[in-house]
Amino acid sequence: MGVKRRAFLIGGAALIGGGLFGVSWSERAASRRAAKLVAVDKAGVFQTWIRIAEDDTVTIFSPHVDIGQGSLTGLAQMAADELDADWSRIVVESAPVNAAFANAPLAQGFGKELLPFSVPPFLNGIVDSTFAMIARNIPLQVTGGSSTVRATGQMGMRVAGAAARTSLIATAAKRLSVPDSELTTAKSQVIHAKSGRVLRYGELAAEAADLTLTAAPKFKDPKDYRLMGKPIPRLDIPAKVNGSALYGMDVQLPDMRVATILAAPVRGGKLESVDPAPALGVKGVEKVIKLDSSVAVLAKGYWQALTGLKALSPKFSDGGHGALSSASISAAQRAKIKMDKPDHKSGHGDVPAALAASGGKLVEAQYAVPFIHHAMMEPFALTAHFKDGKLELWGGVQDPLHSRKVAAEAAGISVDQVTFHPTIMGGAFGRRLPGFCEIIGQVVQIAKQSPNPVKLIWSREEEVKHGCYRPQASAHLKAALDKDGRIAGWSTDYAQSEDAAGETRFVYDVAAFALRHYEFATNQHDGAWRSVNSNQNGFYCESFMDELALAAGEDPYQFRRKHLPPGSRHLAVLDDAAKRSGWGTPPIAGRGRGMALVESFNTIVAHVIEASVSADGRPRAHKVWSSVDCGQVVNPDGAAAQIMGGIIMALSTCVDEAITLDQGAVVQSNFNDYPILKLAEAPEVDVHFLESTASMGGLGEPGVPPTAPALANAIFAATGKRIRQLPFRNQAKV
Amino acid sequence: MAIDVEVNGRSFSIEADPNTPLLWVIREELRLTGTKFGCGIGACGACSVHVDGEITRSCIIPVAAVAGKSITTIEGISAPNGTLHPVQQAWIDAQVPQCGYCQSGQIMAAVALIRKTARPNPAHIDEAMTNICRCGTYPRIRKAILAATGQAAAAAQETYDGR
Q: Which of A21, A444, A452, A588 is the most buried (most CB within 10 A)?
């Protein structure tokens, strides 16, 4: 999720003002409400997120959802380590979808990142409370932006764990009549070594939860970590190998019906007419429901609903977008850039002067990327039930709290009448963020027309044709090399729907730099696609660095080194990837190596890819070395998995994926024409983390952006062919 | 019209249109939701089951075609006493799943592969494991299959930060 989206979420609420939504509780009141929602007899609830029961079971309430990134285990590690809890008695549950469990630490994390100044310590409390209030009003329980561990974990879970431990010690000290300093904690027990007396957390929790702490709790020193930094096995994995994990697709309720839907092929078009008879004639079909821009069929089961839907011949309008095609978009974007009148500018120095300077060498290149689909493995499936004026929903979304509000608005009822039961998801990658989940409005309207719970399932065709894609974009890059072969000036002009400034970090030391955005809207809703704009921008920037290196007559690695500050983290990451990949020694005949360095979500990543190109021109990545500096690593196994996963997803995308438009409609329909990379083409991946005490960076997304350019550079090294348009497919054919 | 099938060792008499894909009979009639819907055209493998021991994509086979046959789903591959199949255990040891949605199908495909080839090499694995994974867990799938088939040294070649 990009900066713009976060700013929208936070800023919107700040503008409207905290009190108007009626959620203006003080922090203490909010904590009390949260505690009430998850109260269990004789248990203590600490700082919203942790409940310790009488039998020592520690429940961590996570305001984040599992989209496969394993960060719930990471969050639990952080809370449990600060708490000194017995890991074998830890349970992680979804936080109730209620404003009391709005994710204040996340708002604080996002908010502070957006502030143009550092918050002075004396203001911290006020700023934190303001963001907490904002979190309740947005309302915020979102998972995205590679922020779960670095924001909620650092600011929420660790604080809660440390605060709980401090309270437990204080309570034990009172009960044992000894000073706090004589007590230690381990595995959910408070220990008084002097007397040998031991008190279980479960015996202390109810009383300890009522204590008010006077000072902020202290975090553990890294040398005392027992869980953080360890490759603890993920808590959610066992259910994912035996078929018992329940996704939104798997929700089953008594007397449930199933619906499926077809929306206007050209986005922006409306449903003009449809004769329901052919569907109603299919056994098991109960209703044909006409919506504004789609038609749905309600039946006993999915197959009957789909059969009914396929029997229909609905007529849709095209909303005036019938002339739109990928080719027309491309041409119009290039034309707009040529006009040299950008809508947004950022950068530093005098770029025109640098580019025009005499004695310099001017290098230019144009790049282009298509619309890209999330292609999450689980198609959208949301269940809704209207009963006695109340609405209940079940399913997987990246922000259950906000989705509950959207559902209430769609239903025209108060949010207090709506309950949202979040499930895990079969992938999201940004597809299920608030604002992109059209399925919420659809299922609410369908469920209104049935007394039964209704599960709405999108077919794979509906998924492919009605995505919220990564935007199609065109870019024109220019740079000038001075007589010493150093970059004197650089401009990136790009046309797409969204302004990427603020997200795209230019890491090189260049005196004059300009990033210029040309607005370009289409009928598509542009989505946040894993790593958002760092994706395309990384492709242009890191491909172009190699083109500049070539123009300067230098090795791409040495050329990059020249432009990075000595002693910088970026240089360390680049050097690490070059060393581990054996950059200096050539690969076997027919293979080439390419590198790329991209910083995103506060994490610095360098990939080196070794690849070859087959006779028919298809590139094949054999090995990827990835060096990552994200500050501290909470769970090294999960962290490596996220980087590896991001690389493979990115490879699939740049090798063979494209959503194209023709006559305003999406051409592709399923995995036959939107192919996903298979195991046989997956490279070996070797990830190495350079740990530091720098502020924690994200892991879900940063592995993605350096992939496409590293492969483009490897293809060039192997064949001498520079490819500037994605997907590669067989453009590299010699 | 009733169709008799055996699923995970139990007999069922299914009342459904004979053209209903086996996937939807498994999920909606038998309420076994471990077998997943991913694409509906047999392209992704999330719906993989065993029919008389053979790996089968259940979204493109009508239930009528499996009348009288023996079907095994992900719910049926661990031992009756609950002990995990070695492939399932290897999947946990290698921490394979991320979102997990494709993994039932992946595991069924791996089990079928191993039944045919007791010690599959990387080429065997490439050929048999064509199920799609969007999260990109492929390197760990390779590692888990090698580990499950007594090929620990080869499994150790799949490196990521020393594990």
A: A444
Residue in the block written with tokens 């795209």: A504
Taking chain A (734 residues) in runs of 10, the rounded mean pLDDT of each run is 51 34 51 76 80 92 80 88 94 81 69 56 59 61 73 77 91 95 96 96 90 74 90 92 96 97 98 98 98 98 98 97 97 98 96 88 97 98 96 93 92 95 93 90 97 98 97 97 95 94 87 96 91 94 98 98 97 98 94 97 96 97 97 89 96 98 98 98 96 84 97 98 98 91
Which residues of B, range 41-60, sit inside 8 Å of A by Cβ? 41, 43-44, 46
Write out residues 411-440 of A within 8 Å (CB-CB) of B. Answer: 424-429
Residue A170 main-chain phi, psi, to 5 deg: -60, -40
The CA distances from residue A711 to A85, A593, A596, A599, B155, in Å, are: 45, 8, 9, 17, 26
**pLDDT tens digits along A633-661:** 888 899 999 999 999 999 999 999 999 99
Q: Is the minimum CB–CB distance between A671 and chain B shorter than 8 Å?
A: yes
Picking from A240, A455, A685 by the largest number of B CB atoms within 10 A of its own CB, the best residue to mutate is A240
Under 8 Å between Cβ of A403 and A443? no
Which of B8, B101, B102 to mutate: most A Cβ within 10 Å?
Answer: B101
Distances (CA, A) of A71 to A78, A92, A635, B99, B140: 10, 11, 9, 11, 18
- Amino acid in the structure at residue A103: N
Contact A546, A556 (CB under 8 A): yes
Task: Give the residue among A187, A216, A198 at the shortest CA–CA distance from A81.
Answer: A187
Q: Cβ distance B20 to A307 under 8 Å?
A: no
On the 0-12 / 13-18 / 19+ scale of CB atoms within 10 A, A407 is: buried
Check if the beta carbon of residue A101 is closer than 8 Å to that of residue A141: yes
CA-based torsion, B106, B107, B113, B114: positive or negative? positive
Distance CA A473, CA A185 (A): 56
Q: Could you tell me if A247 lies within 8 Å of chain B, comparing CB atoms?
A: yes
Q: Which amino acid is at B11?
A: S
Distance between terminal CA atoms of chain A? 38
Residue A660: exposure state from Cβ atoms within 10 A (0-12, 13-18, ≥19): middle
Instruction: Tell whether B72 is within 8 A of chain A (Cβ).
Output: no
Distance CA A119, CA A290 (A): 52
Strand, coil or helix: A344: strand
Distance CA A622, CA A493 (A): 33
What is the per-residue DSSP string for A699-726?
A: -SSTTSTTHHHHHHHHHHHHHS----BS
Say yes or no: ipTM exceeds 0.90: yes
Distance from CA of B150 to the nearest CA of A (A): 20
CA distance A252 to B116: 36
Tell me if A376 and B37 make a contact (CB, 8 A cut-off): no
Handedness of CA A6, A598, A594, A542 (dihedral sign): positive
Buried b (16+ CB within 10 A) or exposed e, A338-355: eeeebeeebbeeebeebb
The DSSP H or E segment spanning A613 is strand A603-613
Question: Are A299 and A266 in contact, with CB atoms under 8 Å apart?
Answer: no
This prediction's pTM: 0.91
A686 CB neighbours in chain B (<8 A) are 159-160
* CB proximity A377 to B under 8 Å: yes
Q: DSSP assignment, residue A508?
A: S
Q: Phi/psi at A458 (nearest 5 deg)?
A: -85, 130
> From CA B111, how far away is CA B88, in angstroms rounded?
9
> pLDDT for B100-109, tens place per residue?
999 999 999 9
